[in-house]
Write a structure and sequence with these properties.
Elements: H1 2-13, E1 18-27, E2 37-41, E3 46-48, H2 53-69, E4 74-79, H3 82-87, E5 95-103, H4 106-120, E6 126-133, E7 151-155, E8 160-162, H5 167-181, E9 186-190, E10 197-203, E11 208-212, H6 216-227, E12 231-236, E13 252-255, H7 258-264, E14 271-275, H8 280-291, E15 297-300, H9 304-316, H10 321-326, H11 340-356, H12 367-379
Helix pairs in contact: 1-4, 6-11, 7-8, 8-9
């Protein structure tokens, strides 16, 4: 998403028109999820993707027509049935909903895009609410009733610019945005009181993993975390473990004690701290320092016995029990990991589950759906073997 907003700022600075298409809602199996974006320039070129295939091609064509012929923002849905999916070699069975939003004047969008880019670069998080379905019963408001694509910019301190067309609706959008900003999430919301529908996107710094300890597991974590789009910060008080030769692509490498190193780093709610030091006396001080930061995910490598002992020490040092409940220790998902690489995979999997809202359960088809497939095959004359 970040390249789309950067390109929007660049194009608008040059007084060029663009169309920004966004996936706002999906159901079933789809090639992209909410938040995916495509920017189409006035020369027909683009930045970003909506998942490829004929659906993206159709959206691309619609964007070019809007740029050529005029027209306002619109919401479109595409059902990915078997015929449509077959055209692209996909096995999908869902529906995708898109906001196709023409941006014709810098004042319509430039400030929004600039503040999003600033959030990505370490500034305060922001959110943008896009109206998808206008209120049926708008409350008392001086603002005019607006249409699809009307925007509300929401800042971390609660300040706003723009409107969804109703001041009460704006207030509810602000309250929803607060819970999304910390980790840059999105949500499609149907407002029970007015019937309005809006899509909120929140933007903050890219997810960052802090590796407190430069040992074997951290070395294995580094490339895996970077492969899923995370920045990597490394801290170790030993120069032979915290250096550019060992972590050549890490964003920050600090040769410091863990407490002062954690205090020095730019840590926010979208930061994921993994404590993997070389011993118990370093683990407890590092975990205490991490627990006192705003990071939502703080994990400790080690056994349950070690975790209990360190938790007892943290309680004695005044760390609230509610904060200790939030810690992830021992870290990672249970995949019977043994080697540093396996342990690293289990930790990154848990981070993704935590950040994206997954369950951590296997995705394989259950017996009921297997029987659906078997019955369908039988209905077409197939003989289904028992084993």
């Amino acid at each position: 998403m970040e390249p789309v907003f950067r390109e929007a700022v660049s194009q608008l600075n040059d007084d060029r028109q663009v169309v920004v298409a966004t996936v706002v809602k999906t159901s079933g199996s789809t090639p992209q999820k909410p938040g995916a974006k495509l920017l189409v320039r006035d020369d027909g070129s683009g930045v970003g993707t909506l998942g490829g295939g004929c659906v993206e091609g159709d959206i691309w064509f619609a964007a070019q027509q809007l740029l050529k012929n005029g027209g306002g923002a619109e919401m479109r849905s595409y059902e990915l049935n078997e015929e449509l999916a077959a055209e692209d070699g996909l096995i999908c069975g869902g529906t995708m909903y898109f906001l196709i939003d023409p941006i014709r004047r810098p004042e319509d969008y430039q400030k929004y895009a600039e503040e999003v880019v600033a959030a990505y670069e370490g500034g305060p998080p922001v959110a943008i609410a896009n109206l998808m379905v206008a209120p049926e019963n708008p409350g008392p408001s001086e603002a005019p009733r607006l249409s699809v694509g009307s925007k509300l910019l929401i800042r971390e301190n609660g300040e706003t610019e723009g409107t969804l067309g109703d001041s009460d609706l704006d207030g509810r959008a602000v309250r929803k945005a607060v819970n999304l900003m910390a980790m840059g999430k999105q949500e499609y919301i149907v407002d029970d009181e007015t019937g309005a529908e809006f899509f909120i996107e929140a933007f903050t710094t890219p997810p960052t993993i802090v590796l407190a300890g430069g040992g074997h597991v951290s070395k294995a974590l580094d490339p895996i975390a970077r492969s899923v789009g995370m920045r990597v910060f490394v801290i170790d008080d030993r120069p032979e473990f915290a250096n550019r030769e060992r972590f050549p692509e890490a964003d920050i490498v600090l040769t410091k004690d863990f407490v002062s190193g954690i205090a020095e780093l730019p840590i926010n709610a979208n930061t994921f701290i993994v404590i993997a030091t070389r011993g118990h006396r370093f683990d407890d001080t590092a975990l205490e320092a991490a627990a006192r930061t705003p990071a939502r995910y703080v994990a400790l490598l080690g056994s349950k016995r070690k975790t209990i002992m360190i938790y007892e020490e943290l309680i004695r040092r005044g760390i609230p029990l509610d904060r200790i409940r939030e810690l992830r220790a021992p870290s990672g998902l249970d995949i019977s990991a043994r080697t540093p690489g396996e342990i690293a995979i289990s930790i990154v999997a848990e981070i993704l589950m935590f950040r994206l809202g997954g369950s951590g359960q296997p995705m394989k088809l259950d017996e009921r759906l297997l029987q659906v497939a078997a019955n369908h095959a039988r209905s077409e004359g197939a003989t289904v073997a028992a084993d």
